[in-house]
Amino acid sequence: MVEQKRFALFLATCDSTFVKKTYGGYFNVFVSTFGEEGEHWDLFRVIDGEFPEEKDLDKYDGFIISGSLHDAFGDDDWIIKLCSICQKLDDMKKKVLGICFGHQILNRIKGGKIGRARRGADMGLRSITIAKDSVKPGGYFGDKTPNSLAIIKCHQDEVWELPESATLLAYSDKYNVEMASYGDHLLSIQGHPEYNKEILFEIIDRVVGLNLMEQDLADKAKTTMEDAEPDRKQWQTLCKNFLKGRTDQV
Asked: What tens digit of pLDDT does each residue of 136-151 get?
């Protein structure tokens, strides 16, 4: 009998009313994007101080750290605890996929530099350039590595500088680090492979309603998705290849 694979989501944001009503919560968004039949997925609301026991970490095959409205360079108790857990997972060589806030957290624990985005916040559909010289043929991207991929972006912080142990996998004209790997067990992505158009638009409307974004910027962000879509299938394949250990990158 094949042993059931186990994964955990470290949810670093609260479920919006819209996401609860439409999807039953962000957990379901992540599992439907990255999960497969026969797997067991657990949810830990790390933003509320909910973490697995350290003795249970080895039970899992992989972990995902979600995005967050909080700063990955912050010193809130739960962020410090998350960093500590991630350092243990790094020592254990466990697979960890970091998305947005999670992307920055992984860089933080590996000794890189993170902070407020130097060229300003970004929201909308963007094309990022793949650093093809750093990508191994047959790695996470599969047999054919694309020159670029479209992904939904929604962030005000960024990775300023990668540590020596990191491999840069993607960049853009606005941000130097869009995706990176650290060995074969840590993968980080600044954009949101799990987002779709309706999730993004609801976030934009909510942010405008809270007076955290000007209406003209919100309109521009929505315009990016008028005639284009993210490369969701390719992102799914890439992330699944990594999480399930189907291919190595280095």
From this structure: 777 888 888 999 999 9
